[in-house]
Amino acid sequence: MLTVARNTLLALATFLVPFGFGQDTATPKSGPQYTADSRLKFPGKFREWIFLTSGIDMSYSPMSGMADHSMFDNVFVNPEAYKAFVETGTWPDKTMLVLETRGAQTKGSINHSGHYQDSEVMGMEVHVKDEARFPGKWAFFDFENTVSGNLVPAGAACYSCHAEHAAVDTTFVQFYPTLLPIAQAKGTLSPAYLKETTTPPAK
Amino acid sequence: MLTVARNTLLALATFLVPFGFGQDTATPKSGPQYTADSRLKFPGKFREWIFLTSGIDMSYSPMSGMADHSMFDNVFVNPEAYKAFVETGTWPDKTMLVLETRGAQTKGSINHSGHYQDSEVMGMEVHVKDEARFPGKWAFFDFENTVSGNLVPAGAACYSCHAEHAAVDTTFVQFYPTLLPIAQAKGTLSPAYLKETTTPPAK
Questions:
Q1: How far is C-alpha A189 from the geometric centre of its chain's CA atoms?
Q2: Among the listed residues B155, B185, B190, B194, the one whose alpha carbon sits nearest the alpha carbon of residue B171
Q3: CATH of the domain spanning B28-59+66-155, picked from 3.40.50.1820, 3.50.70.20, 2.40.40.10, 3.40.50.720
């Protein structure tokens, strides 16, 4: 019986490791890990995490324009953080949100219109919640390779924009269609977001 | 020791069930399940499966046009099938590919351009590989609710289009950017797809 239980456990663990789940749930493998010089290690299995949404050519600036080049943004979150959000409506410590930017194509194989995603990864950013590590609890990291990413300085515009406009805990849950209803039901929408969505635009 | 092993196993199983992984790997919970009248049961946890890609307004017909209404398509696959594809370059029995269609919005919150996904699910189709059940090994099911889906008859155009143009085993892996390189490396691209991609267009 002991052998059966152990073998089942080992088989299960072997099956799960490729998906980023570790045997030791106290230190989940999908949480943030850092290099000795405080860079964020590339989360190699993020494409096997939970998908939150995909957008194309989104811009928060009224002046932007990218008429000649389209890009998709895919957002993933580590499974432990997703599970906590579903239960509570907000993010736990050690949350990692990955924004992957990919090229968009129109003509290819039998496709004639619209856009599909191609194999060119054009960028990656990670938003990490690590309460003991960052004074504002969250930090952004920008990746130029698949080894480690640069910490974005605390004064950068992304921090203030997320603080001022994000629906939940400095994250843009308003653009994550399966999570927004959970936050609404749990009452975790930020005061700033609630004010923005209920106040009519200035004349 | 037996108690420790059993408790660890139970704790792990409790943690995993929300993500669609079952304790009994011989009958994975993410495989297809049918009603008594041969409809496919709705895979309720598909948003927690592996994301393959997202497209917008894609069309395989040169004549199509949807200028006044945009939609995203998100594709997910059950984790067991994904794991097998990564290892072999093709799909195992009991593969389920889910195509979720969602509304696309432009103006909302602080977004000004491009498109993001909204909460309106406009349709869902599932492509199932069940070798013992379907004469062609694969079948399509169309969902109009979140209970069960209708089998698409074998003579429908989707079957012949997938057979004639799909990159791997009647599936459009040419539009799944992380899987296409695996199929290329494993040599599992279909003869029809290889011919299509190497033959110059007729003059």
A1: 18
A2: B190
A3: 3.50.70.20
Per-residue confidence (pLDDT) for residue A200, from 0 to 100: 63
Chain B hits for A76, CB-CB cut-off 8 Å, are 51
For the segment B3-59, what is each residue's pLDDT rounded down to a tens digit? 434 444 334 333 333 333 333 334 446 799 999 999 999 999 999 999 999 999 888
Whether residues B54 and A47 touch (CB distance < 8 A) is answered with no
Question: Taking CB atoms and an 8 Å limit, are A55 and B117 in contact across chains?
Answer: yes
Q: Residues of B11-42 as b/e, b for ≥16 C-beta within 10 angstroms?
A: ebbebbeebbbeeeeeebbbbbeeeeeeebeb
**Contact: B12, A9; criterion CB under 8 Å:** yes
Q: A74-105: per-residue pLDDT in tens?
A: 999 999 999 999 999 999 999 999 999 999 98
Q: Which of A9, A48, A56 sits opposite B9 (nearest CB)?
A: A9
What is the distance in angstroms between the Cα of B128 and the nearest Cα belonging to chain A?
21
Torsion angle defined by CA atoms of residues A164, A166, A171 and A174, in that order, rounded to the nearest 10 degrees: -170
pTM above 0.90, yes or no: no
Nearest to B174 among A23, A54, A109 (CB): A109
CB contact under 8 A, B9 and A5: yes
- Model ipTM over 0.85: no
What are the residue ranges spanned by the domains of chain A?
Answer: 28-153
Supply the CATH classification number for the domain A28-153: 3.50.70.20
